UniProtKB/TrEMBL annotation:
Disordered: annotated segments: 129-152
Top-level taxon of the source organism: Archaea
UniProt name for this protein: Amidase
Gene3D superfamilies: Amidase signature (AS) domain
Positions of the Amidase domain: 25-418
Pfam families: Amidase
């Protein structure tokens, strides 16, 4: 079910011509036919492979000389089905008429097309990137969830259906499914990747993110998407890593916490300084403010659609919107102010203790059984609320062979540092 398809290697092989693009598309078609009926990561599309073969032929004709080919020449990208992509309908995992959900192509999709990428197709999402799950299953164990809301994208990358895919994160919808599926997930600083052309859930905390199989792939794609990317020299010193002890960390399960302590030991053995500090003692209040903020924003974003098609919404999404309709302007103001307050508090702790990165379990535990729930995003929430750049990498496996990931978050705007440090951190774990 799993298949190695690292982005940087695949892109290099396609650009150089070591892999012929038409043969690669045929290989993808065969792989999808064998795997996707089991995991259902891709939204159904009539004529997908004819479309892709035509797109590939046009790309080859445009760039006959390998020396002129752009960085993602011929690379197939999975597009979460809340992103508009020219030529493909947007359904957002919902029963609303697709013609209701039309819009201009997402800036992020256009950016990767300009870099030579081909759109593999839409990937399954929970309804409107909230909680109501689709049919996607975890490639590591099809009896378990791949996480949400970016379920299809995480599963598609893990199964090698595409080496890169888009996700979005409003609470934990990139970092958690990446951890459950054993891949790398990157959520940038809030606003660093454009959300234009993406159906919103909460404009105050929605982030566009990406999945790849390794950190080298993330390092390749992030500069193509992030605003004002700065090229930094390779890191010569290891970052100091902060552990946010206290109520936040205690939200993880005993299994996750035991593994996390092993992960910290591996980092220390690899030469990293690890500093433990009490942090986020008010996490329950942060969680509540974030939830209220998302609900209030969702009510605004979906007001017109919900008025006309409310009966077509899933129960979980309907409850969120209904909750948001009762919110006051003060609720919005408190929630939005809370983002900056949490960011400032975490930054002050980093300044005071010489911390470069925060680290924590990427989820409360491994992927839970069943696909009726996508798992709990609580471990991801504060980093999303504060808008901090965050990466998750696979760190170990349970006795059942289920991936466990760690997430690390850096300073606001320091995406370049987080990604360049990610390589060494990933290498420190025995599974990498």
């Amino acid at each position: 079910m799993l298949h190695s398809e690292p982005l940087a290697d695949t892109a290099d092989d396609l650009r150089s011509g070591r892999i012929e693009l038409d043969a690669y598309v045929d290989e993808l078609a065969d792989r999808a036919a064998a795997v996707d009926p089991e995991i259902e990561a891709l939204v159904d599309e009539d004529g997908r492979w004819d479309r892709l073969r035509g797109d590939a032929a046009a790309l080859e004709a445009r760039y006959p000389d390998p020396a002129d080919r752009p960085p993602l020449y011929g690379v197939p990208v999975g597009v979460k089905d809340i992103f508009h992509a020219d030529g493909l309908p947007t359904r957002a995992g919902s029963d609303l008429p697709p013609e209701t959900l039309t819009g201009e192509e997402a800036d992020a999709v256009t950016a990767l097309r300009r870099a030579g990428a081909l759109v593999l197709g839409k990937t399954v999402t929970t309804e409107f990137a909230h909680m109501s799950p689709g049919p996607t299953r975890n490639p590591h164990d099809t009896e378990r969830t791949p996480g949400g809301s970016s379920s299809g994208s995480a599963a598609a990358v893990a199964a090698g259906l595409c080496p890169v895919a888009f996700g979005s994160q409003t609470i934990g919808s990139v970092i958690r499914p990446a951890a459950f599926c054993g891949v790398v997930g990157f959520k940038p600083t809030f606003g660093r990747i454009s959300t234009e052309g993406v159906i919103p859930l909460s404009v105050s905390v929605d982030h566009v993110g990406v999945f790849t199989q390794d950190t080298a792939g993330t390092a390749l794609v992030a500069p193509l998407l992030c605003d004002s990317w700065r090229t930094l020299p390779a890191s010569t010193e290891s970052p100091t890593i902060g552990v946010p002890d206290g109520p936040y960390l205690e939200q993880a399960s005993d299994v996750a916490l035991a593994a996390f302590e092993d992960h910290l030991d591996e980092l220390i053995a690899a030469g990293y300084d690890v500093v433990r500090v009490d942090a986020m003692g008010d996490i329950d209040a942060v969680n509540e403010r974030h939830q209220r903020l998302v609900a209030a924003d969702a009510a605004v974003a979906h007001e017109d659609w919900y008025r006309e098609h409310g009966e077509k919404y899933a129960e979980e999404t309907s409850e969120l919107i209904t909750e948001g309709m009762e919110a006051t302007m003060e609720t919005l103001a408190v929630g939005r102010r809370s983002r900056g307050e949490l960011r400032a508090a975490l930054t002050d702790l980093m300044d005071g203790r010489g911390i470069d990165l925060w680290i924590a379990p990427a989820a409360p535990g491994p992927a839970p059984k069943g696909i009726d729930s996508t798992g709990d995003p609580v471990m991801n929430l504060p980093w999303t609320h504060a808008g901090l750049p965050t990466v998750t990498v696979p760190a170990s496996e349970t006795d059942e062979g289920l991936p466990l990931g760690v997430q690390f978050a850096g300073r606001f705007g320091a995406d370049e540092d987080v990604i360049r440090w990610s390589h060494g951190i990933a290498d420190a774990f025995s599974t990498q």
